[in-house]
Amino acid sequence: MFRRFLTVVSVLALAVVGSVTAHVLAPEKAAADGCYTWGRTLQQGATGADVTQLQIRVAGWVSSGENLALDGDFGPATAAAVKRFQTGYGLPATGIADSATYSKIYGLQDDDCTPIHFDYSEFDNNCGANNYLGGKVSEATAKENIRRIMWQLEAMRHKLGDRPLNVTSGFRSVSCNEASGGSSTSLHMYGQAADLGLSNPPQCTMWNAGKTAGFEELLGPGYPGHNDHVHLGNKSTRSWSAPNC
Ligand code: ZN
């Protein structure tokens, strides 16, 4: 997102909203973005790579315990997530990704397609290596997995009242994970987990917020080794534990 550009986009968006209210015609089109531009309105029944890109952006807007499939298939779950996203940002909750929805997303993303409040450099410490190498997946896959987590965290951050979230660990190589005392099956080696430190909202608040942000692995206070952070991860089966919450 270019900041000056965004201002122009916002003004245009207001103008578009105004003209639609007045005339209710002419298909609206959100302005192009430096990261990714959607070329059509998306609603239930749509399929394609542009649906997957949308799903990544709204994956943190699920109901408790839900995990949105990033499958390029716009079904009821995607519509519900889009609705929650729209409500969360004060837009009409239509469940249809229209130009107002895209304008909001464009305002939330940087040109590298990460959300504005998170960056790859926050997740790549990797025991001081500052890269995404040496894990159980390729560098590209690790970065893509982390990018998806960033969008879930962006949603969580907004729902917690726009409070900054401090990432203390993200991707780890196999050797880094071993040195950090991580489990031998740790999702950190896949770029599918992030730890949030204590200089954040209260630990149990973060742990609970992870439930409605699509995280199937949530470990917090009272779980061995997790009294000083909350661990959030993406996988297909549920592991939630924080006995002290
Ligand atoms: Zn962790």
What does this protein structure show overall?
The protein has helices at 3-23, 49-58, 76-88, 99-108, 139-159, 174-179, 203-211, and strands at residues 167-169, 193-196, 217-219, 230-233, 239-241. By secondary structure, the protein is of the alpha+beta class. The protein has a domain at 118-245: Muramoyl-pentapeptide Carboxypeptidase, domain 2. The chain has a 5-stranded mixed beta sheet, with helices on one face. It is globular, with a radius of gyration of 19 Å. The N and C termini lie far apart (38 Å). Residues 169, 188, 193, 195, 231 line the site of zinc ion.
List keywords for this structure.
7 helices, five-stranded mixed beta sheet, 245 residues, binds zinc ion, Muramoyl-pentapeptide Carboxypeptidase, domain 2, single chain, disordered N terminus, alpha+beta
Could you say which small molecules are bound to this protein? zinc ion
> For the record, what CATH class of the domain at 118-245 applies?
Alpha Beta
The largest sheet is: 5 strands, mixed
Q: Give me the CATH fold name of the domain at 118-245.
A: Muramoyl-pentapeptide Carboxypeptidase, domain 2
